[in-house]
Amino acid sequence: MSEASPTLNFGTMTEVFQFLMEIDKLKSVQRRTKVLGTQRQENSAEHSWHFAVAAMTLAPYAPKDVDIQKVIRMALLHDIVEIDAGDVLVYDLAARAAVHDQEVLAAKRLFGMLPAPLNQQFLDLWNEYEEGETPEACFALVIDRILPVVMNLNNQGQSWVENNIRLEQVLARNAFIGDINPELWQHVRGHLDNAHAQGWLK
Amino acid sequence: MSEASPTLNFGTMTEVFQFLMEIDKLKSVQRRTKVLGTQRQENSAEHSWHFAVAAMTLAPYAPKDVDIQKVIRMALLHDIVEIDAGDVLVYDLAARAAVHDQEVLAAKRLFGMLPAPLNQQFLDLWNEYEEGETPEACFALVIDRILPVVMNLNNQGQSWVENNIRLEQVLARNAFIGDINPELWQHVRGHLDNAHAQGWLK
């Protein structure tokens, strides 16, 4: 949104539409993964859509106590903080730690644009995802991690190759998937060994 | 996904991951609306994310009988058929009628990639949205229509100007919003008159 745009009056919905125009910026936050079969990096908005649909389709494979609707809402909100803080590679542990404080401020600023009680509801949902302790947050994290892995397995290891990622890194960051969905991890584990053998992972 | 990609085995989840890789193509379907402040046309995947978050934020303004979780799921699935059928401008009524049969075939092919009962659940949800009769489908349609209108109001009428859209067309296609949310339509109506006066709408 141009800084010069005047605030349009939508009555009680004015703040909601200001928020919706502000988060349009997530469409310009680039990730490392490329859209399959293209040379274009995916952005965090389209990734969030992919993640939310993945939650819908993986619902039958979720632990029984998981509220999938909540996982979908987490997927839709989880990356909005990147509008202020940017996207950081999941394997860059130092940068991920450094960016955390910026993300907390971003969540306050962005979700704070909304009227009550939406502002607190959205912030609570984002915090729950970040803390990663509830069944919904754990299952959401599985999906957020597995999606770029499967995209890499279907794209000659594109983002692994471009970022010099090693098999041990992928195993260390994703082995928790085995605790939540052993069948899924068993298959992924085999495909990762194959990716390593093919040179897609160092 | 490259046609040459072998099918990766994910056990009972194999079909789900094939579907998730296939729908990655929605990230390459271009709409007429541009991402605010850029020269890039938004794609239907990032639009679907925006639509779903809009449903979350507009929940307090929905008619009381609307199940917002269902509206969110409709938002996430509603444009997937465009992978086969393409995006058609909402104001091009002849093209919209012509593309309907292709969209029905696309829904069968794409949702049909999923195992039961997901395949039928997704198809039913898409059909319900298309038919536009339930409270959820009506509210979803309001959001799908209002979002590009508000983006245009914040972007000097970009897609209206580029496609020679007239005020009467926007009024004719969107006046139903007044039946579902009179307050919203009252504000939009005023902004549309202003857009016409500024020459953003013919």
Automatic annotation (TrEMBL), chains A, B:
<dbReference type="InterPro" id="IPR006674">
    <property type="entry name" value="HD_domain"/>
</dbReference>
<keyword id="KW-0479">Metal-binding</keyword>
<dbReference type="Pfam" id="PF13023">
    <property type="entry name" value="HD_3"/>
</dbReference>
<protein>
    <submittedName>
        <fullName>Hydrolase</fullName>
    </submittedName>
</protein>
<keyword id="KW-0378">Hydrolase</keyword>
<dbReference type="InterPro" id="IPR039356">
    <property type="entry name" value="YfbR/HDDC2"/>
</dbReference>
<feature type="domain" description="HD">
    <location>
        <begin position="23"/>
        <end position="185"/>
    </location>
</feature>
<dbReference type="GO" id="GO:0016787">
    <property type="term" value="F:hydrolase activity"/>
</dbReference>
